[in-house]
Amino acid sequence: MRIVIDLQGCQAAGRLRGVGRYTVALAKHIINNRGDHEVLLAANGHFRDTLDDIRDCFYGCIDGSALKIWDCCRANGENEALDGLLYEYFIRSLEPDILLITGLFERDAVLSVRAYANTPVAAIFYDAIPCLYKDYYLADDEDYVRYARRLHMLKKADVVFAPSRCAAEDYRRCVDARPDRVVTLPPAADPDFTASAASLDEGTIRGICRRNAITKPFVLGIGGDRRKNAEGLLTAFSLLPPALRERYQLVIAGVSDPREKASLRRHAENWGLKEHETRLLGPMPDTDLQALYRACHLFVFPSLYEGFGLPLLEAMACGAPAISSSSSSLPEIMDCDEALFEAENPRSLVDKLLRALTDEAFRARLIRHGTRRMKTFSWDKTAQKALRALEETVAGRPQKRLKLAYVSPFLPEKSGISFYSAELVPELEKHYDVTCVVLDDKAALRENIRLSFRPVSWFEEHFRDFDRVLYHFGNSEFHIHMFDLLRRFPGVVVLHDFFLSGAHLAREAFAGIPAAFSRELFHAHGYDAIRTQYDHGTHEAMMRYPVSASVMEQSLGVISHSRYSRQLAETWYGEAYTRQWRVIPLLQRENARSANDRALRESLGIGKDTFVICSFGFLTSTKKNCDLIEGWLASELAGHKDMLLVFVGEHGDPNNKKRMEKLLSNRRDKERVRVTGWASEEDFETYMKVCDVAVQLRTSSRGETSAAILTALSYGIPTITNKNGSFAELPEGTVVMLEDDFQTKELAQALNGLWK
C-alpha cells in the first residue's frame, strides 16, 4: 500500500504548536512501523522556509526521494479554487492508495478533498474548539465560512483520526454522527521529555531558570489564550495565603501574543499580584520547556478545552507533579480523580493548589502517578493503530458516494421546512455527499455549521457535478426561486404542500415576475380558473385552486408525506400525475420529556402546578386558533387560575389576530393566554417538554402534513386534533380525534377529559 502523508500540518501556522508536533511524530512513527508499505511525504512549496527543517527532521528515517514538493498559485488568495485543483492533481500523480491530511484546519494550508479526484482520504480532527467557541474564534464571517468549508471537506474523508476520545465524541456531535468513521490516535510525549535527559544537567536547568528571571520555587502553567484559562490560574494564585504565595513564583510559558501578555499582566495587577510574583514567558525551544517541567514545584493545566492536552503528558513525563482541570480530554489523560479540579470554579483550583503546595505526600503521589501514567502512551502503538485503520479503509472502501444537491429553505428563514431539513440532511449524509442549495449560504452557515451550503448561483454553474437533485417545495415565499431552478435543472420534488398557489402569488409580490400566478393558474386549471380570478378576485382563486401542475410535470418524481396529497393530485389532475409518486412518512426523531421539568417551567415563567395547553405553528385562520380559544373558554379550564393556553408561533394573518384579540378583549382569562411569537428550535422544544396537552386543529387543508402533531406524539403529549386532510390518517387511538367540522362543546369536552 502506498501512503501519502500531507505535511502541511507541520508547515502552516500551527507548525510550532501541538498540530505541528503531532504531525511530525505521527509521520515519523508511521514510517518506522510501515513494514511492507511505501510512505511518501508531500510538502507545500509555498512554505519555502519550512522545507529545510522538514528534510532535517526526517533525515535518516526515509529516503530523500520520498519527499515530494508541489507549488500552488497563492495560498488563500483569489486562486484558492485553482490551488485546490492543482493540489488534487499533484496528489493523484503520486498514485496513492490513501492520502493522510494532517493540517486540514490550518488557515494557510492549501487543500481539497475529492472535489476533482476520488483518492481515498484520511484526515486528522484535532479538536472542536472553533465550533464550541464560535463567537471568539469565528466572529469574522470570512473565518467562519473558511472553517465551515474545511469541516465539509472533513466529512468527505473516508476515515477520521482524533487524538482523544473527547475529540472523537466532539467530532460526532459537531460534524458527523456516523460512529464508524472515527479512530482515536492518542499522542505520546517526545522521548526527549524525560525526568533524566542527559542533555539537561542541574546547572543547565538553573541557567535556563535564571535567564527567565525565575528566582524561587515555582508553579508552572502553559498557554496564554482565553481557552487556556491563564486568567483563572492567576486569580487562584492570588487567593493563596500570603505566606504561602511568598514562597513561590507563578510562571506561565507559551504566551505568544503581545496583546494576550498585556491583558494577563493587567489581570494579575487587578488581583494584587506584583510583577516579580509572576513571569509571563513567550514561546520557547523544547530544551527550555523541558527544563521548566523538570524544575517546577508543581505543574498546573487549567484549560477549559483541549483536544488532547499534550503539555500535561509532557510534564508528567519529565517527573513534574501535575494537576489539571476536569474538562474535555484532560481526565482521560490524567486518569486520577484527586488530581482534577473544576476549571471555571476558582475555589476548586485554589483548594487543589493549596493541597499540592502543602501536602508532600499528595505531591509525591502525583509524581508517582505521572511516571506510571505516561508509560501507557506510545507513539509506536498509535502509529500501528493508524496503519491498521488505513489498511482497513483501503480494503473496505465502498464505491464512490453519490453527490446530492438539496434545495430547500434553512434557518434563518422562518419556515417549518427549515427545521425539517436541518434534521433530514444529517441522515441523508450517511448515504450521499450532500450540498445544501440556498439563497444566502453565509446566513445559513451561521445557523448550522455542520452542513455544506452553496448559493443558487454556484449550483447553476455546478449542476452537472451532482448525481441527484432534491427540491423541497412549500406554499410560501421561501420557495419562489425554486420554480425556475426546477424548470432548468430537473430533480425529485418533496411536496410539503399540495397547494402552491400562495407561492406563485409570492413570485409576483417578492420576485416581481409579472402575472406569475395567472400564467400558472391558466396552465394548471384553464379558462374557468381565470374566470374565477376575474369575477371573484385573486384571493378566491388562490384559495380554490392548487396551481401545482407545473411542479409535478417538471419533476423527475414526487414525494409527499401523506396519502391525502396524492389523492388531491389524482382528483385535480388525474392519475397520470401520480405514477412517479411515493408517500414517505414525515421524518420524526425520538424525543424524551425533560427530567428537569420544573427548571424549564421556571425559565418560561410557568408555575410548577400550572396545566399547560399548547398549539404549535404559525397562527392563521386555517389553524382554527379562534376555535381553540372558544373551546378553551367554554371548558372548565378557563376559570381555573392554574391554567395556561400557549400559541407557540407568530401571527401570519392580521384578520385572524384581530379575531383572537376580540374573543379575549373582555375576559379576565386573557392573561392566561400567551402568544410567543416566532419560536426558535430551542424554544419550540422547551414548550414541547413542559406541555401537558397539545391541540393541533386544521381546516381547508392544502395537502400538508403536521410536523407538530408527530413531534407532540414523540414526546408522549396527549394531543387533540380533527379529521381534516392528512390528520385523518393518524392511527386510531394515538390522538383525541374530533370530527372535521366539530362543535365548540366537543372541543371543550375533550379538554375537560384530558385535564381530569
Strand content: 5-15%
Biggest pleated-sheet summary: 7 strands, parallel
CATH homologous superfamily label of the largest domain: Glycogen Phosphorylase B
For the record, the CATH class of the largest domain is Alpha Beta
Q: How many runs of DSSP E, i.e. beta strands?
A: 26
What name is given to the CATH topology of the largest domain? Rossmann fold
| Count of folded domains | 4
Number of helices: 32
Helical amount: 40-55%
Please state the CA-atom Rg, rounded to the nearest Å: 32 Å
Assembly context of the chains: single chain
Report mean pLDDT, rounded to a whole number: 89
Enumerate the spans where pLDDT stays under 50 for 5 or more consecutive residues: none
Keywords: Glycosyltransferase, Transferase
Pfam family, one: Glycos_transf_1
Protein name: Glycosyltransferase
EC number: 2.4.-.-
Topology:
Elements: E1 2-6, H1 18-32, E2 38-44, H2 51-58, E3 67-70, H3 80-93, E4 98-101, E5 121-124, H4 129-132, H5 134-137, H6 141-155, E6 159-162, H7 165-174, E7 182-184, H8 202-211, E8 218-222, H9 230-238, H10 242-245, E9 249-253, H11 258-270, E10 278-280, H12 286-295, E11 298-301, H13 310-317, E12 322-325, H14 330-334, E13 340-341, H15 346-358, H16 360-374, H17 379-396, E14 402-407, H18 416-428, E15 432-438, H19 441-447, E16 453-455, H20 456-462, E17 468-473, H21 482-488, E18 492-495, H22 501-511, H23 516-536, H24 538-544, H25 549-554, E19 557-560, H26 563-573, E20 581-583, H27 597-603, E21 611-616, H28 625-634, E22 643-648, H29 654-664, E23 673-675, H30 681-690, E24 693-696, H31 707-714, E25 719-722, E26 736-738, H32 744-755
Parallel strand pairs: 1-2, 1-4, 2-3, 4-5, 5-6, 6-7, 8-9, 8-11, 9-10, 11-12, 12-13, 14-15, 14-17, 15-16, 17-18, 18-19, 19-20, 21-22, 21-24, 22-23, 24-25, 25-26
Enzyme class: transferase
Keywords: Glycosyltransferase, Transferase
InterPro entries: Glyco_trans_1 (IPR001296), Glyco_trans_4-like_N (IPR028098)
